[in-house]
Amino acid sequence: MTNNDYIKKSIINFYTKVLLKHGIYSVDEVERAIEDGRINMNDFLLDLDKIIPPQKQQEILEQNPDSVEIGNRKAKVEYDYDSETKEFSAKVNLLLKELSEITHLPSLPSGRTITFEVSRNESGPILFSGNSLEELKQKSETI
Questions:
Q1: Angle, CA 124 vertex, CA 121 and CA 125 arms, to 5°
Q2: Which of the 8 DSSP states describes residue 2?
Q3: Number of C-beta neighbours around residue 23 at 10 A
Q4: CA 24 → CA 3, 29, 45, 122, 128, distances in Å?
Q5: Whole-model pTM?
Q6: Residue 93 burial (CB count, 10 A)
Q7: I want to staple 128 with a disulfide (CB 3.0 to 4.6 A). Which of 3, 72, 105, 139 is the partner?
Q8: Using an 8 Å Cβ cutoff, are 139 and 101 in contact?
Q9: Mean local confidence (pLDDT), 3-19
Q10: How high is the pLDDT of residue 32?
């Protein structure tokens, strides 16, 4: 079972228990229960420590680190999830000047593809993006 499947199953189980505890079996009943004050939004807060075992949490963190090494700099990894396409993504800001200095791009232990967004400085606008060093170097030649 993948991490995504495990988390999805855990969340479904959590919400199923919360709803069944209050005798709720439909969306209409959820709305009525909130209006009647039988449940409140705090009932729906997820405590990941209760639904994901510590070993699984550690595995997820190791597979999806907060930062990666680019040259001699640690670059923050930003993670996102697109609910329409149901795809997870990761992106890292890469400085334009670093493109000429590096020989390879970092990867994530999870195997998730990183999109590298290139800018002149860390707070500047994104000039272009890509997933491979060759692609990024080609795009940089047009600037």
A1: 130
A2: -
A3: 9
A4: 29, 6, 17, 48, 49
A5: 0.68
A6: 20
A7: 139
A8: no
A9: 80
A10: 86
pLDDT over threshold 80, residue 3: no
The residues near 32 (Cβ < 8 Å, ≥ 6 apart) are none
Q: Is the pLDDT of residue 67 over 90?
A: yes
Fill in the amino acid letter for 17: K
Share of the chain above pLDDT 90, in %: 49
For helices 3-21 and 54-63, angle between their N-to-C axes, nearest 10 degrees: 140
Using CA atoms, how far apart are residues 99 and 118, in angstroms rounded to an integer?
9
Rounded Cα–Cα distance for residues 80 and 59 (Å): 18
51's tokens = 């639904």
| Burial class of residue 95, CB neighbours in 10 A (0-12, 13-18, 19+) | middle
pLDDT band at residue 13 using 50, 70 and 90 as cut-offs: confident
As separate numbers, helices (DSSP H) first and strands (DSSP E) second, the chain gives 6, 5
Position 118 scores a pLDDT of: 97
